[in-house]
Amino acid sequence: MSALIELDQLDQQQALLTDSLRKMLEGQWTGFPSLEANIQALDPGVELAPRPPVLESEAGPPAPSGWWADYDPNEGMPRQAYSWSCSACALAWVLRATRLDPNASEQSCIDAIGYPQNINPTYGLMDGSGSQLRRVVGDYGVTTGQAWLSYDACYATFADTTGMMSGGAIYHWVAVRGLTGDGQLWIANSAPGYCGVYDTLSRSQFNQWGPWSVVWLLH
Amino acid sequence: MSEQDARITQLQQQQALMTAALIAALEGRWQGAGSVEAYLYALDPTLQGQLIPDPPVLSS
What we know:
The structure holds two protein chains of two kinds. By secondary structure, chain A is an alpha+beta fold. Chain A is 37% helix and 16% strand. Chain A has nine helices and eight strands. Chain A has a six-stranded antiparallel beta sheet, sandwiched between helices. In chain A, strands 1-2 form a two-stranded antiparallel ribbon. In chain A, helix 5 packs across helix 6 (106-113). The radius of gyration of chain A is 22 Å and the shape is elongated. Chain B is mostly helical. Helices cover 53% and strands 0% of the residues of chain B. Chain B is built from two helices and no strands. The radius of gyration of chain B is 14 Å and the shape is elongated. The relative contact order of chain B is 0.13. The chains are: A alpha+beta, B mainly alpha.
């Protein structure tokens, strides 16, 4: 067998393995199509004794708790008052949308982030990774994560939480409401139209204005 | 890099993502950051908007 034929076979097996992950995520463990069927295709002689798990569709999803139970992705986002305060606006939106602080505002968050040492008119947010935004959210007892994410990782992350993100090339913080349902990120933008970005962020916009430092809330 | 080398490199990257996805499944991270869903999007970006998750109920 030539190397190219072997590579073709490996590609086919890889595709089946990827599809097997999808079957697991979508709860298709046995029957056809299913994880079981894919394993049979990968190894026709294998003997299986499946014990599929109980699924959320059968048991019901876990009841949301904490801020996640109160989260309102439709919370309004006022335009920012200053050219340098986008991060404070994004933070205030997150605090209001999660009801961690229903009265959070651009100004209250400028104060909470720390003016002028951590945020100021010259540089905006001093630490572009969002460490001070994380500290403020942490002051409300909520744990956050942070990473420089790809679009795919970012999309998966915000299927299940909210947060804030800033692109290195756009130099602008936005809050993330969630997903649009057509493959885009749904954002709360205090400067709609800036660099052509309004209320959504597509993969091409994400790649154009990145890399993105992403801060997300855990629940 | 020859086409053959490029395909081997891609398969190696896919294997690494598969391994990470299996770890996520074992640890019960089906959705969200570092989840099975996230690694699936990395393996096949065309799945965005296509998946209908129905994950297992976790015991803890």
